[in-house]
Sequence to fold (254 residues):
Amino acid sequence: MVELTVASLDSVFHALSDATRRAILRDVSREAKTVGQIAEPYNMSLAAVSKHLQVLERADLIRREKKGNFRMVQLNADNLRAAQEWLAYYETFWTGQLDALQNYLETAETPGEDVRNGNSGTGTEKG
Amino acid sequence: MVELTVASLDSVFHALSDATRRAILRDVSREAKTVGQIAEPYNMSLAAVSKHLQVLERADLIRREKKGNFRMVQLNADNLRAAQEWLAYYETFWTGQLDALQNYLETAETPGEDVRNGNSGTGTEKG
DNA sequence: GTTATATTCAACCGCATGGTTGAATTGACG
DNA sequence: CGTCAATTCAACCATGCGGTTGAATATAAC
Fold:
């Protein structure tokens, strides 16, 4: 278990909600790259790409390491794992198509976040 | 393979980026519910919950069915599956921690979207 | 037919997003 | 040191988000 807080799941899924950022993740998963190398395929400003990287970094999906004049960007897949684990709960619904209530009873131990009654958004952010 | 377009992956991940919406998905996965039943645990207006449902519906993660005076909301997990498949690509990076380049060579057949050079956002939306 | 209930619509608000451009920072190098 | 290159910062803009409230719609119930 990766133990991701509500707020960081927010940031991870938000980071993934943009096609450019998903493509960047694919990119840096193949090999670590500089910001310039990452930006090259897209026709947007370097500053825009830099902002995308900030979003990815906020979600802790990439790490940036200063390497001389460059910044090497590399993937950090741990939070992706957390996202996938969140999604894994729903596997039963697309595989077996079991009755939802019965399925609930079977998997009732699944932790699952609780954001009811105003707890939303103010969850303790991961350190 | 679920064959989700770039734009709909956007909408799916966006829908998941809010804790309230994730909780709603969990909720309706256990059993189909009315909008009122869904809204009850949260201290926000019914209209706000209705908007959340619209976001989920835009991502095709729920289906709404008129049932008399109510609308029954039920889960549609197919697009969640697509999201999970997108994430599955990264499993190798959190399990083996292989060298990224080597991993790339091994998995080079993975389709992967391409949003470079202005193709972003204008992808053919799923019908 | 009128009224009550469930849900959505419309307008609005404050704030975040994704993009731009131009200036600032930081480090390599002649 | 001066300059160039890589990257970020700051200000700005248009748009979208998540929430509100109040009106509108649709169906049920009396």
About this structure: Residues 16 and 22 of chain B are 6 Å apart (CA to CA). Residues 18, 20, 44-45, 47-48, 51-52, 55, 66, 68-70 of chain B lie near DNA strand D (CB under 10 Å from a C1'). Chain B has seven helices and three strands.
